[in-house]
Specification:
By secondary structure, the chain is an alpha/beta fold. The chain folds into 3 domains: 95 residues, no CATH class; 67 residues, no CATH class; 139 residues, Trna Endonuclease, Chain: A, domain 1 (3-Layer(aba) Sandwich). Helix content is 55%, strand content 16%. It has 13 helices and 6 strands. A 6-stranded mixed sheet has the order 1-6-5-4-3-2, sandwiched between helices. Helix 5 packs across helix 8.
């Protein structure tokens, strides 16, 4: 039988695809088994403590003894710190049904660093929802994502956020205050221009989209609009596949002004008339500025029917302790 080049190339591609799928499933299966095994080991340790009233010993030499004996019998993987995490893993996730088959042990060791159960549950769920790598998870925890989203909600909303993760259901859910753009590596005191900020965002577009959140698809920068014989340019244009609408983003180096709000309202009216097609919801405008005057914003947006959202951005990681303190006050109230 003659082997044609096209058929043979297709055969190689099909086999390659199957091999890739098989290897991915094998790795995922190994990760799932490892996570479940560690959960069971943690359960045995906690049960031993409870049965033998060993809590005091746990605090002194039980973990040391376990680490030494398990390492001697079964090799690497049983350092004292790992034994501690395995025990904590079971305590924090006592129902094995709550474990995600998508998350590796490396994911869980990062999640266990959360300072409270609300934060821990949020990152476990959000990591599963958005398929974060371990590196992405570290960055989101470091940037205090939970606290930044939670501060826009009431107590009931914070509890819901912890249990189900961040679900985008309405335009207001797109906002984090502040957005953290530390990945741009712009010095805090550097006197940058707006076009420099835009250039840096475009060069780090993947990280910027991750900071924006799930559902954003990039369309273009400096999007040109001709309105009444005049030409305007929008900094960044996205489409949100969950909300099914255009999302217009304007960047401001300093404080957001009432004129910026009026200009965004103009852009939104243009998009409603000229760009939206059947099936699209009304566009959403987001103005990102280094600062915003809450009273000015309140008056400037009072009579606007379009959805104009305003938020601060910062070029450095937030003070996590201050955010936690604000969340605690919110929950207490």
């Amino acid at each position: 039988m003659e082997i044609t080049n096209s058929n043979y190339t297709q055969l190689i591609e099909q086999i390659g695809f199957l091999l890739q799928q098989g290897r991915q499933k094998a790795v995922q299966s190994v990760n799932t088994i490892l996570v479940q095994t560690y959960w069971e080991i943690g359960r045995y340790i906690v049960k031993f403590e409870q049965y033998g009233n060993e809590r005091a010993e746990y605090g002194t030499n039980l973990l040391d003894k376990l680490s030494k004996d398990l390492s001697q019998h079964y090799g690497k993987g049983f350092s004292r710190s790992n034994i501690f995490q395995i025990r904590l893993f079971y305590i924090k996730f006592q129902k094995i049904q709550t474990l995600s088959g998508q998350l590796t042990w490396s994911h869980y060791t990062e999640i266990l660093k959360a300072s409270n159960d609300l934060e821990l549950n949020f990152y476990a769920k959000q990591c599963e929802n958005e398929h974060w790598s371990v590196r992405e998870l570290k960055r989101q925890m470091k940037s205090s994502l939970f606290e930044r989203i939670a501060l826009s909600k009431d107590k009931k909303g914070v509890m819901k956020l912890s249990k189900g993760g961040h679900i985008v259901e309405k335009p207001e859910d797109l906002i984090k205050d502040p957005f953290v753009l530390e990945f741009l590596n712009i010095p805090e005191q550097y006197q940058y221009l707006e076009n420099e900020l835009e250039e840096q965002i475009i060069s780090k577009l993947q990280q910027f989209i991750m900071e924006l959140g799930k559902g954003f698809a990039f369309i273009g920068r400096q999007y040109r609009m001709s309105i009444g014989g005049k030409h305007f340019r929008l900094d960044l244009l996205f489409y949100h596949r969950i909300l099914k609408c255009f999302v217009l983003i304007d960047l401001k180096r300093g404080e957001i002004d009432h004129e910026d709000i009026g200009q965004m309202n103009l852009y939104l009216n243009y998009f409603k008339k000229e760009e939206a097609t059947e099936g699209d919801n009304d566009p959403v405008g987001i103005i990102l500025g280094a600062n915003k005057n809450n009273i000015l914003v309140e008056y400037a947006t009072a009579s606007i029917t379009n959805k104009v959202l305003l938020s601060k951005y910062q070029l450095y990681l937030p003070n996590k302790e201050q955010l936690k303190e604000q969340i605690s006050k919110l929950i207490e109230e």
